[in-house]
Amino acid sequence: MMTFLEFEKPIAELEGKIRDLRSFAPSGGVDVSSEISQLEGKLSRLLKETYSELTPHQKTLVARHPERPHTCTIINHLMEDFTPLAGDRAFGEDAALVGGLARFRGEACVVMGHEKGSDTASRLTHNFGMARPEGYRKAIRLMDLADQFGLPVITFVDTPGAYPGIGAEERGQAEAIARSTDRCLSLSVPICTTIVGEGGSGGAVALAAANRVLMMEHAIYSVISPEGCASILWRTAEKAPEAAAALRITASDLLTLGVIDTVISEPLGGAHRDAERAMNMVGDAVEQALRDMAGIDGRTLRRLRREKFLAMGDKALPSEGLF
Description:
Blueprint: H1 9-28, H2 33-52, H3 56-63, H4 71-78, E1 79-84, E2 97-104, E3 107-114, H5 120-125, H6 133-149, E4 153-159, H7 166-170, H8 173-186, E5 191-200, H9 201-205, E6 212-216, E7 220-222, H10 226-233, H11 240-247, H12 251-257, E8 262-264, H13 275-293, H14 298-310
Parallel strand pairs: 3-4, 4-5, 5-6, 5-7, 6-8
Antiparallel strand pairs: 1-2, 2-3
Helix pairs in contact: 1-2, 3-11, 6-8, 10-11
């Protein structure tokens, strides 16, 4: 059964009524098709109304929905002949960041991304998508491979941030993130990033310093989580809704600011309601982005990438009443 978020309670109640009517119909001997049709119409209108007016905090909850398609699911759906590559050739393997060689709609590529996991066991295995230094050094190794063989790089971002543990810091977390970001910027092949869930801090940017940055409609992308921001500014995580609004973390705000290039629409009610369709929409957007970059030489790709990131901050949004 689908997991419903707090603000989706009216939706859950309607779906429950529809489910009850459908289960009653075969045994009750009463035609309830018209009632079901009316409730389905009401459900569609309620979904549209609810999801067209989501607050930044509600979008954060949707971005973290446990049934939202994660990187491994997206790779398995969109890629063919995926061959995972493990290890950073320095310390070890990091399951929080998966990647390897694949074919995307007939073309060879290097693909990688953060993986959060889908249940308790896999979340622990993948460390909730929070990569350690060896994960980012593995990303660098994969990007080196892409550059060597002239393969486009496709990345998927879904992380609350890089792992902040003592061991990660001792092994050079900040340096690994900086080097991964630098390697993105220095690539002579196209790199396309999609923010599919959470894009948190430098742990996200390390895979997202790309020629094309795409973002799913209900994903978030920020320098810090709303809860972390609220804890710093107001000394309480209960102010997370206010922090989410102040941080400008939504796809529409980031498109206006020039931080991302494209917003990928999601099925009505979020990607978790129709994961296959959502993943196909991501695939179409990535294919279009790579097609737009086809034929551009490496020097020009690097120059355009550099200019893109240097230009960020030129645009501004009204700041009245943020804090």
